[in-house]
Amino acid sequence: MHPMLNIAIRAARKAGNHIAKSLENTDKIESVQKGTNDFVTNVDKEAEALIIHTIQTSYPDHSIIAEEGGLIEGKDSDVQWIIDPLDGTQNFVKGIPHFSVSIAVRIKGKTEVACVYDPMLNELFTAQRGAGAQLNNARIRVKALKDLKGTVIGTGFPSRQKQHSESYLKIMSALFVDCADFRRAGSAALDLCYVAAGRLDGYFELGLKPWDMAAGELIAREAGAIVTDFAGGTEYMKSGNVVAASARGAKNMLKIIRENGNEAILK
Ligand code: IPD
Ligand code: CA
Ligand code: CA
Q1: Among 139, 171, 186, where does a domain finish?
Q2: Is residue 212 lining ligand 1, measured as CB closer than 6 Å?
Q3: What are the angstrom distances between the C-alpha of 94 and each of 18, 99, 143, 216?
Q4: Ligand 1 center to residue 75 CA distance, Å?
């Protein structure tokens, strides 16, 4: 195993176990609003500190981008760790046991290793570039599709960018004609891993941040998924708009997204 994946897993398990333990004692959770419909808790910050400490113990010179603390510029700017210490904070705050820890390592701009950990189910999704994706060490594959008939599509509402609601809901209505159902589970990192594991047939969301996607994106691609932006290109890390599914699934979803989305979101 890649040594950095080993450290990423150690960090994700430490943080995940801390988050799960914190859920047992909800009166100790303090939540602060940091933006429109955007909250952070003391547990997000504690989990992030645990992850950063674990990384820096092995790799003191690497750069780190963490959701809550921002950029830590290391001596080595070629290696960048991208961390979402708690993906699914809203679920966590409500006591809904679906959230994850997401850690990816990019070397010279390419994601090399990734892990997403769901501490409530003890499910660890991992990937290494060129070596496939795993759930608890067993190989996972995306579900191959002919069309969208019978499919369950994961998504997230643009709750922090309500200016896009109309366009987003138009896409959903059109997709709903062809697919069977939707899931809005509340952790983008897990949504991408669920596509990788064939639990979801596809996934789309807009307005994400790099740390929501960095790890899940590699895991989905290594499981055979196509990951694109809303224009069918590869700029999703920049635009924050992402589609993931098997090749045929992505093609079908993109067609509907492109026919129904307005210009502001088609990138
Ligand atoms: C959020 C989750 C959610 C997605 C939001 C993200 P956070 O991350 O991934 O599923 O719909 O857009 O911001 O804030 O819980 O880390
Ligand atoms: Ca997130
Ligand atoms: Ca987060």
Answers
A1: 139
A2: yes
A3: 17, 11, 31, 23
A4: 30
> Among positive and negative, which fits the CA dihedral 246, 248, 253, 258?
positive
Cβ of residue 88 lying under 6 Å from some atom of ligand 1: yes
Q: Tell me how many degrees the CA angle 185-11-196 measures, rounded to the nearest 5.
A: 40
Using 50, 70 and 90 to split pLDDT, how confident is the model at 96?
very high
How many secondary structure helices (H) and strands (E) does the chain include?
Answer: 8, 15
Is 147 part of a structural domain of the chain?
A: no
Residue 87, annotated ligand binder?
yes
State which residues have CB under 5 angstroms from ligand 3, the bound ion: 67, 84, 86
CA distances to 22, 127, 144, 266 from 235, in Å: 36, 21, 24, 11
Structural domain of 159: 152-266
The SS3 call for residue 193 is helix
Q: Which residues contact 223 (CB under 8 A, 6 or more apart)?
A: 127, 132, 133, 140, 141, 142, 195, 196, 197
| Amino acid code (one letter) for 253 | M
pTM of this structure: 0.98
Q: pLDDT tens-digit profile of 25-84?
A: 888 899 999 888 888 999 999 999 999 999 999 999 999 999 999 999 999 999 999 999
- DSSP symbol at 130: T
Domain shared by 129 and 157, yes or no? no
